[in-house]
Amino acid sequence: MTTNGYNPYQHAISQLEPVAARLGLDPGIHAMLRTPRRELSVAVPFKRDDGTIEVVRGHRVQHNIALGPTKGGIRYHQDVTLDEVRALSMWMTWKCAVANLPFGGAKGGVTIDPKKLSLGELERMTRRYASEISAIIGPNQDIPAPDVNTNAQVMAWIMDTYSMTRGTTVRGVVTGKPIDLGGSLGRNEATARGVAILVRHMAPAYGMSVDNAKIAVQGYGNAGAIASTLLADLGGTIVAVSDSQGGIYNAKGLDIPALREHKRREGTVTSFPEAEPVSNEELLEIDCDILVPAALENQIHAGNAGRIKARLIAEAANGPLSPEADKILFERDVIVIPDILANAGGVIVSYFEWVQSLQEYFWTEQEVIDRLQSKALEAGEAVMAMAKQEQCDLRTAAYLIAVRRVATATTERGLFP
User: Is the confidence at residue 1, as pLDDT, over 50?
Assistant: First the structure.
């Protein structure tokens, strides 16, 4: 979020610049990659339950179409800004490219706290937002998905709204939708599963193992909660987790099945017994081997990067490390599996769902998991090989692969007219 002087779009640009220079990009191609192709900002009026009308702002940004139609989530949060959506759309372009998917990047957001809405208000707001952006989305144009504070039900409302304007059911307009409406098995766990697959595979290359590792997870939402479970199943000891209300810590390890039930019942992890309270900021600096930031952007920055004790960081969130933090951690030999690789499991399985929706032919959950593992490991191996070849950190390596793919496609397509 754009707070305390932090601008996520400038963050995204600052990550592109050194890679563009390293690749020797043509200045015109570089300018195209810096600039989102299309931005739509809309007023979203909707009726509250008491009959009053509220108006909020919504955005949809499509960053690049060189590799295919754009793809990216929609988030509902009171701090959403256009610059944040721009940044997220750019990160989606690189994420799709590093995973070798036929998509460009997009992102959407509405500036609202959905926790203050009734279910009816949430539906009316969602449908109005969907109608406002319906001219620029579509199964061959731009395919939304869930993100922060959105879920399968929100995607169902968007799919239905879009379908009603077209006079036919269009399953492929969104991914992350309910299974009954053409969603993919394994999609809900995909982001977290991708994180777990890559941590397990890449940690040994740096002298580490998930087995018996102490792990802290900031952000106990969908991705963070499922990642905690999967990493614990791989033998890791989850010593700390947090949500928007705060965090908990137990050096001997948390009972993850009991914690998930507690979160479901109470709505927060903070009151979980047999654990010490910690803040979200304190959790990042806890003594652990592996840290999984799964919350929002700019959580690790110049002010706290020097105090991080983890030896490996897997970015389940988008943009949780600032560029300054990247430099500090690299100098301290902390391994960072970057967001555009670590959390790409979500968009990989979204791609699978899109393919299934277009074909109206659906796969088993095991087929989805197997194909996700294959795609994730292929990308992970490519990034590690590039890092070794170029003697650079994993983020730079991932960007070198992604930016080169997009730049090559842009050059080969040329300019119209």
Answer: no
- Whole-model pTM: value is 0.93
Rounded distance between C-alpha atoms, residue 88 and residue 109, angstroms = 10
Intervals of CATH 3.40.50.10860 along the chain: 8-169
Catalytic one of 107, 214, 263, 375: 107
Instruction: Give the pLDDT score at 285.
Output: 95
Q: Please, where in the chain does CATH 3.40.50.720 lie?
A: 190-337
What value does the mean pLDDT take over residues 39-43? 98
CATH dotted code for 190-337: 3.40.50.720
107 is known as an active-site residue:
yes
pLDDT above 70 as % of the chain: 99
DSSP per residue, 150-193: --HHHHHHHHHHHHHHHTS--GGG-SS--GGGTPPTTSTTHHHH
Q: Which of 350, 283, 287, 346 is nearest to 320 (CA)?
A: 283
CATH of segment(s) 8-169:
3.40.50.10860
C-alpha to C-alpha distance for 13 and 198, rounded to whole angstroms: 26
Mean of all residue pLDDT scores within the chain = 95
What contacts 82, CB < 8 A, 6 or more positions away?
Answer: 39, 41, 59, 61
